[in-house]
Write a structure and sequence with these properties.
Elements lengths: L1 H15 L9 H12 L66 E8 L2 E8 L2 E5 L4 E2 L4 E6 L3 E9 L5 E9 L5
Length: 175
């Protein structure tokens, strides 16, 4: 037991010998002398900061630079005609106040007066005949079949002329 205590005491003494008091502190002393020699109250001024200038990004409505450019083939684009134009003097029908995409053909009727198509849309089911107008683009019904209603719309071509655009409302079968 005494040998163990002596060994432990020796270890402690050996460890503490590294913390000697007679070390060389000349570098620390020279730094402290340099700090004491500095004039009192001489603090370096803060650097000048540039004021923030606001930037408004104005290209948000343009094409994304990461998308390939859209190529428009002007040669193959259909040209309008000055002879084709909507009749602005006629009285508008009720179903012309709605987009043609809202309508669906749901059936046909026939009687002594002719053939009629039933179209659903605009808040109900409506009976239409040849020559009636449908949709906002002056769409005139040109044919009624058992399975579809053919409509020809008159739309602007973007260059001052008008184009006839055929559309069809197919029969929607209930499932």
């Amino acid at each position: 037991m005494k040998a163990l205590q002596l060994g432990l005491f020796g270890l402690i003494v050996f460890s503490l010998s590294g913390c000697g008091v007679g070390g060389d502190f000349s570098d620390l002393q020279s730094y402290m002398d340099e700090v004491r020699a500095r004039p009192k109250g001489s603090i370096e001024p803060l650097p000048k900061f540039q004021p923030y200038e606001a930037f408004t990004y104005s290209a948000s409505m343009l094409r994304s630079p990461f998308q390939p450019p859209v190529k428009i083939d002007l040669v193959s684009r259909p040209k309008g005609s000055k002879e084709i134009k909507p009749d602005e003097t006629r009285v508008k029908q009720f179903l012309e106040g709605f987009n043609i995409e809202t309508f669906e053909m749901v059936g046909t009727l026939a009687n002594k007066d002719g053939k009629f198509a039933l179209v659903s849309g605009a808040g109900g089911v409506h009976r239409v005949k040849l020559g009636d107008y449908l949709g906002r683009n002056n769409g005139r019904i040109v044919a009624i079949d058992e399975a579809k209603v053919d409509v020809v719309e008159i739309v602007p071509d973007g260059e001052g002329g008008w184009l006839e655009r055929p559309r069809s409302l197919s029969l929607k079968e209930r499932s």
